[in-house]
């Protein structure tokens, strides 16, 4: 019967016998765990040689002898030679030292220990072994399924934290709203969180999946209504992290695309709080894709300009629209749309430039309003368009751009290379 143990090998001597690729993988894994690795083999492969040159292992270039096992905590033998591996296993057994035998072609492993197939999620390490003898293919398949489950954030991965533990902050880009577009890394961060500081946008449904004892702090903002100012959000993040908690700042879209994530990173660093960023699917790109609008399209346009509607037009954005050289994506632009249209028209932009306004992108109540530049503000007003919405301006927003013409030959569907300067 096999017992699965977690073995602490940091700064403890471990012997690896063999110089091939299998021995190299075992030696590198042991070195990663902090073990003092001694490799014994007449010759070593390049990865093992690199490990030695890097000072992560020492090498004795000779055949293994029995005294090599003196004072070691664990032995791995991977020579591929039946007699040598059997001798190493026998010496280890006599010394009551666990020995992993990597086996070899057409022979089973004969050691007193086996290395599990492992998967890591944060500070959790999961190992899989078979209790009926070595069965690498099955253990790897089980490991991979467990790893997928952990990566999906379906397991509560929080650890009990001591008072002296150092907290940290993770800024998670939640994407445009559909929980399915939250990244695997974002879900894993939420599975480890003690506190979640959440916006009103993004995948808010995921909050219902959190354990009941995870503290959720709502700091959502809406146009013209900011009940929790940014300085207060920064203070909340820092204060909870300083209490030793893992704090996830769940944001809509991507933290670094008009998400004020940079300000939150600066606040954490100024307070000495460790902070990392998990990128998200930006609303600037997701909304257009969800509406079937390619922001770039060969033969039509090859550049994208993203802007904040409350800041007004930049010279670069107006130039791109006038010469039809780029698509302009406007975030937070619903309230500002009438003024943006007025200024664009007075700035020389063609009144017939196509515009699409995508509300509630990726969610069940997504709605798209299309019109020419000169009429789109009135159309949106008549339809009661509300934020959150993303405005896409440019030729790519023209209805039917991706439709296949009836009876059109396949060759005719490719854009003319001459239009792209090819």
From TrEMBL:
Pfam families: NAD_binding_7, TP_methylase. GO terms for biological process: methylation. Residues 168-376 form the Tetrapyrrole methylase domain. Its EC number is 2.1.1.107. It comes from the Bacteria. Keywords: Methyltransferase, Porphyrin biosynthesis, S-adenosyl-L-methionine, Transferase. GO terms for molecular function: uroporphyrin-III C-methyltransferase activity. InterPro entries: 4pyrrol_Mease, 4pyrrol_Methylase_sf, 4pyrrole_Mease_sub1, 4pyrrole_Mease_sub2, CobA/CysG_C, NAD(P)-bd_dom_sf, Siro_Cobalamin_biosynth, Sirohaem_synth. The keyword Manganese does not apply. This is uroporphyrinogen-III C-methyltransferase. It comes from Cellulomonas xiejunii.
């Amino acid at each position: 019967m096999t017992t699965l143990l977690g073995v602490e090998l940091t700064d403890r001597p471990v012997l690896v016998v063999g110089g091939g690729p299998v021995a190299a993988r075992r030696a590198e894994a042991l070195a990663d765990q902090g073990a003092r690795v001694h490799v014994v083999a007449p010759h070593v492969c390049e990865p093992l040689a690199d490990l030695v040159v890097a000072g992560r292992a020492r090498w004795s270039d000779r055949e293994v002898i029995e005294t090599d096992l003196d004072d070691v905590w664990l032995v791995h033998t991977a020579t591929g030679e039946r007699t040598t591996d059997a001798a190493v296993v026998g010496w280890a057994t006599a010394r009551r030292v666990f020995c992993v035998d990597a086996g070899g072609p057409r022979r089973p492993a004969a050691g007193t220990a086996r290395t599990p197939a492992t998967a890591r999620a944060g500070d959790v390490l999961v190992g899989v072994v078979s209790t009926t003898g070595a069965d690498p293919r099955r253990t790897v398949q089980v490991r991979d399924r467990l790893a997928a489950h952990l990566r999906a954030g379906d397991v509560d991965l929080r650890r009990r934290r001591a008072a002296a533990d150092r907290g940290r902050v993770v800024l998670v880009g939640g994407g445009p709203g559909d929980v399915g577009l939250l990244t695997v890394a974002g879900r894993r961060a939420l599975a480890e969180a003690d506190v979640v500081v959440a916006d009103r946008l993004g995948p808010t449904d995921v909050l219902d999946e959190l354990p009941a004892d995870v503290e959720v702090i709502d700091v959502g903002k809406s146009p013209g209504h900011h009940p929790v100012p940014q300085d207060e959000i920064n203070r909340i993040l820092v204060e909870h992290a300083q209490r030793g908690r893992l704090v996830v700042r769940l944001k809509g879209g991507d933290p670094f695309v008009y998400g004020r994530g940079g300000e939150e990173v600066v606040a954490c660093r100024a307070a000495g709080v460790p902070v990392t960023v998990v990128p998200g699917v930006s609303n600037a790109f997701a909304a257009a894709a969800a509406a079937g609008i390619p922001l770039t399209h060969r033969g039509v346009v090859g550049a994208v300009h993203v802007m904040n509607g409350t800041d007004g037009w930049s010279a670069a954005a107006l130039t791109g629209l006038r010469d039809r050289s780029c698509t302009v994506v406007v975030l937070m632009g619903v309230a500002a749309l009438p003024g943006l249209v007025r200024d664009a028209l007075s700035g020389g932009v063609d009144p017939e430039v196509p515009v699409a306004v995508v509300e509630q992108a990726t969610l069940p109540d997504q709605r798209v309003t299309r019109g020419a530049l000169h009429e789109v503000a009135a159309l949106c007003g008549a339809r009661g368009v509300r934020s959150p919405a993303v405005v896409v301006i440019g030729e790519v927003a023209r209805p039917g751009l991706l439709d296949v013409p009836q009876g059109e030959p396949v060759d005719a569907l490719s854009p003319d290379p001459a239009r792209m300067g090819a």
